[in-house]
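Hi L.,

As promised, EIIAB-Man:
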Amino acid sequence: MLGWVISCHDDRAQELLDRLENKYGPLPQCRAVNYWRGLSANMLSRMMCEALHQTDSGDGVIFLTDSAGAAPYRVASLMSHKHSGCEVIAGIHYSLIEQMVPMRESMSSSAFRQRIVELGTPGVTSLWHQQQKKSAFCSTA
């Protein structure tokens, strides 16, 4: 099963997880990491690292963040390079995550990444998709 680390500004991550668990019951391998104003990047990194290790069963972990480029997205992006099977998604919202709950058990992390971006277009993206855009502008002369 894919682990989920939901990380958003203020208390939105915990609110999303609470709402999901109110509907589906306890969600194994899911953690919320709230990013509060004034929280240092080092502390956010430590919190997200702990959540990564708590949610990773070896099948991969999906970082679900609220906005591309913001601190939770940047920290997750750095962490994903050190751990195989990690994907970073930005632009998430409740109805999108809710659609993805049943897919946690059957999809690979890359298939999950592709599907959530397809369902959430145009406001949802992933680190992988952003990297593909940037590499299109790089030429090999």
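The longest helix spans residues 41-55.

Thanks again for sending the construct details.

K.
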